């Protein structure tokens, strides 16, 4: 029967499309089911990340940063600009063009690798059968030896701030503002809230970010998050910690936000409000009741360390399973599963999944932070190097922030690399490569780093772990 596949993947986001391509490369007959429809009414591959997440938000972050720099950062270089303006529709058009380029790229990769692309909503039935419902409601059943569930996630809604057509929006709506809001509210000071808040702040909006927790960027290293809070405040973002939104009221295209914080009950009005309180697995109508796959009350599918579910031959990856909701984590899980189906013994190192916040300065980290290691009772040595002492960063007028390397005090093994500053994501990735091979701080310190580069800040931070930094005074050993 022609509708029988070795592998059927449900979902063509960073977890699903990568799994499908890798499975096909390994000689497995593979199909991928995707229901997402783009702005042109046609199927669009790439999932949230490519269509309304990572890629379009980076496009807007870069456009808005260039505008901000031209407005506030060129004079120091002796460049004068007058009568600067921003054409928001043109900025959005560029973003949409980039999205289309990459979604089309995934379609081409499916073709090149022999992946069968199936349009429609995929649902797992008993016995590894997949029911596909197309846009007209017509259903077909396809059979598979193996099924990979890669259904992704969606933004969390909150009752105090129900979404509207154009005043209260989620992260998707925040990518589509046709003009710069005079006043913008953001609920949630996580990655998405900070990135989207940054875009519109740079373009001139007054931005207030409401964060229910008393701690800012709780997952980051405390030293880095303190520096970040200071920097964002300096950039003009008002970040209100311990501020719990209790209600919203829209009148004449203005939204009044009611919230409580340390000063009691308060209200503020905005032209637009972005709800960015996190994401949840998108697993509604994904599993038939007799499919045998287990998930918890939040819709998270239970899997083991190798992404296998409770049903042999059925796997789940990405935002639908435990762990950080990150595109790169989803992709690597997709590769791991495809290779395990093909009989390889591939495993994934979950201890070294980097995290990045694409604000300016960038914030990134890999491994453990100082407070985690303190809680675990691990004795550590810490090396910190500021970009203010890095020639390349200063020459580029981008010298805020620091690199922090944390190493085990007994073995000198690097346990964490944390960066806020220029190229943070790339520097952390250098750290991750070293850590994957069990690097010591001394190893990093003995390597030759080209000069002048921002990478030298990682080199110096590694040297500083053992009090050997050259271009900054070393901390006296207690």
From TrEMBL:
Active-site residues, record numbering mapped to chain: 451 (proton acceptor)
Residues involved in FAD binding: 58, 122, 319, 325-328
Disulfide bonds: 49-54
Coiled coil start-end: none
PROSITE patterns: PYRIDINE_REDOX_1
EC number: 1.8.1.4
Cofactor entry: FAD
UniProt KW RNA-binding keyword: no
Gene Ontology terms, MF aspect: dihydrolipoyl dehydrogenase (NADH) activity; flavin adenine dinucleotide binding
Further information: The active site is a redox-active disulfide bond.
Protein's recorded name: Dihydrolipoyl dehydrogenase
Species: Halopseudomonas laoshanensis
Gene designation: lpdA
